[in-house]
Every structure is written in C-alpha cells, then in structure tokens.
Design brief:
Distance between the termini of chain B: 40 Å
Order of helices and strands of chain A: EEEEEEEEEEE
Number of helices of chain B: 0
Structural class of chain B: mainly beta
Number of strands of chain A: 11
Number of helices of chain A: 0
Order of helices and strands of chain B: EEEEEEEEEEE
Structural class of chain A: mainly beta
Helix content of chain A: under 10%
Shape of chain B: globular
Radius of gyration of chain A: 13 Å
Largest interface: A-B, 21 and 24 residues
Largest sheet of chain A: 7 strands, mixed
Distance between the termini of chain A: 36 Å
Largest sheet of chain B: 6 strands, mixed
Shape of chain A: globular
Oligomer: heterodimer
Chain lengths: 114, 109
C-alpha cells in the first residue's frame, strides 16, 4: 500500500543533543511537509518542499533544518533541542502545491526532550 | 490575521448526532478540509468543501457557507470509535493550509 512512513515513532533526546527525524513516502508526491503539533493545538507548519524547492515558514526557528535528498525521503534536523521542542512531529505529502490537495500524513514521531 | 475557530471540546452520546462548527477568517479561500485525529495518531482526511452546500459521505456530512465563513461537520449514529479530535483547515489564497486547533469529541455510552 502506498503510504507515508516516519521513523522512529518515539524519540527521546537530551537537552541540546542534535536529533534527526525521518520521513519516507511511496506515494510519489511532489510536496512534502513537516509539522509540529503540541497537545490540543493545531499542527504548525515548519517547512515544505515542492520537489526540491524548499519553503521555510517565517516563524520557524533556526534550530530546525530540513533536507530532502530525493522525492521519497525528507529529514527534520533539530540542532539543539530545547524542552519547548517536545512535541509530535508530523510529516505529510500532497500531489501538488498550487491547488487544494488532500494531505496524507505519516503516523508521527513523538519527541521527548529530557 | 488568519483565524480558525472551533469549540475546544464536545460531548455526545453513542447513537446520537453531533454537529461540530468551524468559523474562519483567512486571506482568500480555496476550500476547507475536515480531518479526524485519534489521540497520539496522525490526522486522516474526512472531507473537502469548496462550494456552498452539504457534502454527504456515509455517517459524516460537511457543510460550507463561504459568505458566512462557516462550516460544520455532522456526525450521525455516533459510535465509540468516533471519539477523536476533529480539525478544520482552510486553504488560503497561497494554497497554504490554515489549521484550527481541533475539537475534541467525547462519546459516552
């Protein structure tokens, strides 16, 4: 089945220790998104890629970086995690950027910062 | 600024009907999505409305009024598995999704 896969599902890291979250998709979608979602809050868009074209949201902290080496894979790097970065991180994909298109979500990675 | 408003929490009884409202103020409008999100899981697509009116899909229906900046999700014959958060998201003029914080629906036997 075509899907969006995120690894790991649960990640524990120490304060200030870099961490990388990964996402892969078998849907062959052009657009990939990274969201941060805290409890009982709306998902907050961090970045998105249209093919290799990177789009950073204005309020995404510099501490968050992303890489998309190919269509299938996308990574979220948190260079120096703080306690406030503990959240669920959701990867999503969609077919196109320039018209409304359903987003397909991975299961998420729950990040704990100790 | 852009704003999506939904009630924080609602409670309903198994077998009943519930309506979850969403009002929005966004820069442009290119459609509205409803997603379901079970606790600790990713959102899953329920419906998409871009024209005024009611879209029915099984036990779930979604309504849109663009002139009022208003949508609702109607859930019929509620089942315990419908306990989840329901997120309203609007596509703005830049085709970006603006998300509401979600409505947590609690179903009681």
């Amino acid at each position: 089945d075509a899907m969006v896969i995120q690894n790991p599902r649960y990640q524990v890291t120490q304060f200030g220790k870099p961490v990388t979250l990964s996402c892969s998709q078998t849907l062959n979608h052009n657009v990939m998104y990274w969201y941060q979602q805290k409890s009982s809050q709306a998902p907050k868009l961090l970045f998105h890629y249209y093919d290799k074209d990177f789009n950073n949201e204005a309020d995404t902290p510099d501490n968050f970086q992303s890489r998309r080496p190919n269509t299938s894979f996308c990574f979220l790097d948190i260079r120096s995690p703080g306690l406030g970065d503990a959240a669920m991180y959701l990867c999503a994909t969609s077919r196109v950027q320039d018209r409304p298109s359903e987003q397909y979500f991975g299961p998420g990675t729950r990040l704990t910062v100790t | 600024g852009q704003n999506i408003d939904q009630p924080t929490e609602m409670t309903a009884t198994e077998g009943a009907i519930v309506q979850i409202n969403c009002t929005y103020q966004t820069s442009g409008f290119n459609g509205l999505f409803w997603y379901q999100q079970h606790a600790g899981e990713a959102p899953t697509f329920l419906s998409y409305n871009v024209l005024d009116g009611l879209e029915e899909k099984g036990r779930f229906s979604s309504f849109l009024s663009r002139s009022k900046g208003y949508s609702y999700l109607l859930l019929k014959e509620l089942q315990m598995k419908d306990s989840a958060s329901y997120l309203c998201a609007v596509v703005d003029s830049n085709y970006q999704l603006i998300w509401g914080a979600g409505t947590k629906l609690i179903i009681k036997p």
